[in-house]
Specification:
With 163 residues, this protein is an all-alpha fold. It is 56% helix and 0% strand. It contains 8 helices and no strands. The chain binds zinc ion. The site of zinc ion has 7 residues, from loops. Zinc ion (ZN) binds next to loops.
């Protein structure tokens, strides 16, 4: 996997930062800060502990260098396959980033704000809907995922897992 896979998909990467962060109102905004350094962002990541197969990444976000590149590299080092937890990990990772940016823009341009918990639950729901749209093969893994993410799946045939 290309280490910048997630960075490349972010069209807003070149948007200038520099104001005080709209999420915490404390620190000067930067991409590193917004996505992982910010206390607001950390709270959202932390909310997904035990739910998304991201605990190693979340540890890095909590205790690491606060460098986005480190997190992307760690993410690139995780197993990337059609396993349900691999899919959940990638969906949550992308969705948290997207919603952090949405929240930042809502606060910046619309003077509209949500709590970290509301955003975390919004991400959860978005990912849950995606999971419900998958054909998931019956396995220990998919059972554990279905329990955490509250989705059901058909267990017939040998349908391939697909996103
Ligand atoms: Zn902040």
């Amino acid at each position: 996997m290309h280490p910048n896979k997630y960075g490349h998909r972010l069209e807003w990467w070149d948007v200038p930062c520099g104001e005080v962060c709209y999420l915490c109102n404390q620190i000067q905004e930067s991409h590193d800060h917004l996505l992982i350094g910010c206390s607001f962002a950390k709270s959202i990541w932390r909310w997904f502990r035990g739910k998304a197969g991201l605990d190693g990444i979340i540890d890095r976000i909590e205790y690491g260098s606060n460098q986005w590149n480190d997190v992307v590299n760690a993410m690139a080092g995780t197993v990337c396959n059609k396993g349900i937890w691999s899919i959940i990990r990638r969906l949550v990772f992308s969705a948290v980033i997207y919603h952090l940016w949405q929240e930042r823009n809502a606060r910046t341009f619309k003077n509209d704000s949500s709590t970290y918990e509301v955003i975390a639950k919004r991400v959860f729901e978005v990912v849950r809907l995606r999971l419900m749209g998958l054909h998931v093969r019956k396995s220990m893994q998919s059972h554990s995922a279905a329990k955490v993410w509250n989705f059901s799946f058909d267990d017939g045939g040998d349908s391939q897992l697909s996103v």
